[in-house]
Amino acid sequence: MPVIIRLKWLMTAFLTGMMAAGYYNALGQNPLAQTDVFTYSRNQYGAGSQNWAIEMDGYNRLFFANNEGLLVFNGKGWQLFPVPNKTIIRSVVFGPDGRLYAGAQDELGYFAPDSVGKMKFHSLKGYLLDREKKIEDVWQVKVLGKDIFFRTDLAIYHFREGKMQVFHAASKWMSLQIHTGKIIAQDAAEGLKLWQNGGWKTYLPQKDLPSGFLITDLSHYRKDTSLLCTQKNGFFYLIGRNLIPFSVQYEGLDPKQHFTTIAVLQDHSFLAGSYFNGLYHFSSAGRLIQNVSGKNGLHNNTIRCFRTDPFGRVWMGLDNGIAVFEYRNPIAVINPPGFKNGVGYDVTRYKDKVFFALSTGIQSVPISDFINLKENPEPPKNLMNGLSWKFSILQDQLFANRDDGLWNLSGSVPFPLSTLSGYWTFKPNPQDPDGQGVAGNYQGIRFFFKQNTMYSDQGPLPHFSESSRYLETDRTSIWVSHPYRGVFQINPSSGQVRLFDKKSGLPNDLNNHVFKIKNRILIATTKGIYEFDSIQGRMIKSEYFKPVFGDLPIRFLREDPSGNIWFVQEKMVGVADFSLPKSQIQYIPELQNKIVNGFENIFPFDSGHIFVGSDQGFFLVNYPRYK
User: pTM for the full model?
Assistant: First the structure.
């Protein structure tokens, strides 16, 4: 199994300039979410530390050019196939004939399966004249139709239909690429050369190239345009014969650092590997979406190569090992340093901010409707330290329910409504929703009266001392559930309390939790969803929710803006999807056992941003993408 490394605090940038002749400018900021990275060490895959190139076949098997040979991964196990001279393989690429062409030290040829399916190397050196058979490292292999090109520093070897030609460099062959269906090569003295009519013609002379210009990789972008990365000049569009700078800027990093490899994705965002700072994911406008590096968990910062697969993953060949992460992962982690690895208890949106309640305090980030929360540009701001349970919004005011009291967060400075120990929740009083609030705390229920814009403590509900963490209100009653006591119906005017337990229709005396969903008071139980039947005066199985949840043991319910119901079944997160003609349950197995048992919380900001509390911060689920 791979070692899981959680990225810590990824960087992003937001577009500040406008497009001008293909030139973009973006300033560096910090995103809110993180992604998991999986790494394989050389001890796990059983080969050399360095990996120079990666290919994938139609069965999604991965082929790595490794220091000790061809390394093959089928998703379950690894196999190593050395070349006969036991040297480093620097490059691999599949040809249209199904052969895996490879270049090594003093060797070039191809791998193909033998009669029993074992990969066997076939050398092509036999097609060379004796004086040409001593070759250097083959750094790159490119295939275009029936033409196979192998590049060393001093020569490019062209193989086609059983014939080999050798083209010596005027000074040094530095790069070999495919640009809009054409083979181009870079010579240190003569610039870019084009393969045409069996020879190399000038494409862009050296004098027209920037000082120190060296193409390290190139990827098709659109129509007649490629996007390329360089050793020290940053990124460029290559449109026909025209080089146009594509600039990105971000805090703390050099935009002209040594980039090693590049790949444009379907949405025209692109990935770029670097020599010193790991992997970058940029938007099509040059905005940095994330940086996967050693600072936030990557095992090694030197990305020699990478390869995307059909499942939204990118496999990275490192200077020491192999890593993979999902750049389209619909589940991200929110646990920036400011959270101090606190347990995530609640999330809410209030006006132009998102607020996080954690075991370590309260944090907030500004938010605008057009900004993707996963790429939020602002670091969280600490508002309060200390254990914070839940947020409540009454009469357009934000309140924090905390271990040290009930606090109003609506102004510039938090101030306490009550400093009594332990508040769980704060809801409008059903008898007077505009003027009164009812709070559940460690000792029971307290009432608050609103005068003008201020709430003041009016005291407790007499003769009721049950901890009231689960509290909901309807037009006539306050409903409180206690996991070990049952469900209480309270008349706020008379103070009359009625207990519902197994004798009153519930399937069990334990683990009953009250929620308000679709404007109905529901009881989540060990055997499905129950409701109060006023005619019978007891709890009954909900006819409305029975077709959806049946007898499932439910611990938590929360409705999202689309009408779907998110729930926790034992230690599994799921959603009852009501967008379909017939409601259907979808589980999120990736989150199994990762939520806080007994303190489950899910906050649906919208369908693309579902926050799930965890033992370290929150998970962020993009449900449409996940579905």
Answer: 0.73
